[in-house]
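ARCHIVE CARD
CATEGORY: sequence design from structure
SOURCE FIELD: tokenized fold
FIELD CONTENT:
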């Protein structure tokens, strides 16, 4: 019994660890081949910020005064920084939406793979199922940050439909109803009748013994 519990605990830990590894693998893979737009604009923003810092340092050296040309240059740098940040934020929303769709598609594939030979490979199947669920949560998290109400709604509907459908196939449809054979039903009825007859015989024997004891009383007196 103790060995069985230990084996079940190890299987549960392995399935949970496999689910986490599947989620990490999909997340790192998607981010590697489809990186966030922050990396694209990072160098440009750094150059603009350095130019702004140089002008601020020049201003401090001149006791807070700048020439009109320097002020115009500083304002132009600030406008460029705002434009780059606005462009980055817009592309960040598109990237978050696309990433959520890609991740949810991978989660669907993983959850579908967990249904293959699930009875023979229960530990692997459970690990893949957990990985699909974790990845689905990760994907829906990105679509929440996309900022687009319509796309968020349709992605959430798709994720919900996939989760319910695969859950039905995994836990409901896969179970076969247990039908008791007719012979077994009759055997159970015969056993019950035999037990009832034995009880009746025991009660009759006790009643006869009690009657004999009551009948023997007057004779002895």
């Amino acid at each position: 019994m103790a060995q069985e519990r230990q084996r079940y605990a190890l299987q549960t830990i392995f399935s949970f660890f496999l689910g986490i590894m599947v989620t990490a693998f999909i997340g790192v893979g998607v981010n590697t081949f489809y990186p966030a737009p922050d990396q694209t604009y990072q160098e440009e923003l750094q150059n603009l910020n350095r130019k702004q810092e140089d002008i601020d340092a020049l201003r401090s050296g001149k006791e807070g005064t700048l020439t009109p040309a320097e002020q115009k240059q500083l304002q132009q740098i600030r406008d460029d920084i705002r434009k780059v940040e606005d462009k980055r934020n817009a592309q960040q929303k598109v990237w978050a939406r696309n990433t959520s769709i890609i991740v949810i598609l991978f989660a669907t594939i993983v959850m579908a793979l967990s249904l293959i030979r699930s009875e023979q490979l229960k530990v692997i199947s459970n690990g893949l199922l957990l990985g699909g669920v974790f990845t689905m949560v990760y994907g829906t998290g990105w679509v929440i940050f996309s900022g687009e109400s319509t796309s968020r709604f349709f992605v959430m509907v798709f994720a919900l439909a996939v989760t319910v459908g695969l859950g039905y196939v995994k836990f409901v449809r896969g179970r076969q109803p247990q039908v008791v054979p007719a012979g077994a039903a009759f055997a159970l009825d015969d056993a019950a009748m035999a037990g009832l007859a034995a009880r009746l015989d025991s009660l009759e024997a006790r009643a006869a013994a009690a009657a004999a004891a009551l009948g023997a009383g007057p004779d002895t007196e």
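CARD ANNOTATION: Confidence is low (pLDDT under 50) at residues 184-188. The CA atoms of residues 84 and 151 lie 25 Å apart.
SHELF: design records, drawer C
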